[in-house]
């Protein structure tokens, strides 16, 4: 008998499709490099910034060599470079993490807005990965599922802000780096698992799954 929200064959999870664990681990590398450089030479911001940028460039090169999406790779490297420049400009090491505070705040707002206008970003991302473009929106069950599951991603960004903002305000570089590491892979893994569960629960019994919007089946 077919289970709720499943097709006949095993369907990839969001983690399978989006490769969340790899991106999360790679994102932490420049941050840890910054903290290591800052501690290694008497809290030197130039050294920390240089190591962070080199680590970010190495990660970007690895991603491109592995055939990863160039847009996400360039954006990740840009965040590292801007953070390094801001810290050098202000002379405050914690400001390296200020860009990440802003990107998480912007992400929370963007994901929430996308749900309210019925273009949930989780559906946009997964639909693009699966080559569906925006055809998933013609399936009301999938649209509703992506809306519900996208709230989990909003919560992920809010959790980061609740942790990052006080630490950034206090200027605690080591704790900021530790929080960044702790809130990358573990939090992303939890977000992927919970949003996948929410999405499947939103689909009615007998729905063929995210690869096969019902509207596609009728054409």
How is this structure best described in words?
The structure is a single chain. This protein is mostly helical. The chain has one domain (14-217). It has helices at residues 14-18, 20-40, 45-65, 70-90, 98-116, 121-129, 140-170, 173-182, 185-202, 214-217. Helix 2 packs antiparallel against helix 9 and helix 5 runs antiparallel to helix 7.
Keywords:
single chain; 219 residues; mainly alpha; 10 helices; 0% strand; elongated; transmembrane; UCP010219; DUF3159 domain-containing protein
Architecture blueprint of SSEs:
Layout lengths: L13 H5 L1 H21 L4 H21 L4 H21 L7 H19 L4 H9 L10 H31 L2 H10 L2 H18 L11 H4 L2
Structural class: mainly alpha
- How much of the polypeptide forms β-strand, as a percent range? under 5%
Calculate Rg over CA atoms.
Answer: 19 Å
Count of DSSP helices? 10
Tell me the number of structural domains.
1
Topology as H/E string?
HHHHHHHHHH
Give the oligomeric state.
single chain
Characterize the largest beta sheet: strand count, sense, and whether it forms a barrel. none
InterPro entries: UCP010219
Protein name: DUF3159 domain-containing protein
Transmembrane segments: 45-64, 71-88, 108-130, 151-169, 175-199
Keywords: Membrane, Transmembrane, Transmembrane helix
């Amino acid at each position: 008998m077919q289970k709720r929200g499943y097709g006949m064959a095993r369907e990839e999870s969001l983690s399978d499709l989006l490769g969340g664990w790899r991106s999360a681990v790679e994102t932490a590398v420049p941050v840890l490099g910054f903290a290591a450089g800052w501690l290694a030479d008497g809290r030197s911001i130039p050294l920390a910034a240089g190591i962070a940028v080199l680590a970010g460039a190495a990660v970007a090169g690895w991603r491109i060599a592995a055939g990863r999406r160039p847009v996400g790779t360039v954006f990740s490297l840009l965040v590292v470079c801007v953070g390094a420049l801001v810290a050098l400009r202000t002379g405050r090491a914690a400001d390296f993490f200020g860009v990440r505070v802003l990107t998480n705040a912007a992400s929370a707002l963007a994901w929430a807005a996308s749900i309210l206008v019925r273009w949930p970003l989780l559906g946009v991302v997964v639909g693009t990965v699966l080559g569906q473009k925006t055809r998933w929106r013609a399936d009301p069950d999938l649209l509703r599922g992506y809306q519900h599951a996208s709230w989990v991603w909003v919560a992920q960004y809010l959790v980061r802000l609740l942790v990052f903002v006080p630490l950034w305000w206090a200027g605690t570089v080591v704790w900021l780096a530790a929080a960044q590491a702790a809130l990358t892979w573990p939090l992303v893994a939890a977000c992927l698992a919970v949003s996948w569960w929410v999405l499947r629960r939103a689909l009615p019994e007998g729905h063929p799954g995210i690869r096969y919007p019902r509207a596609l089946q009728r054409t």
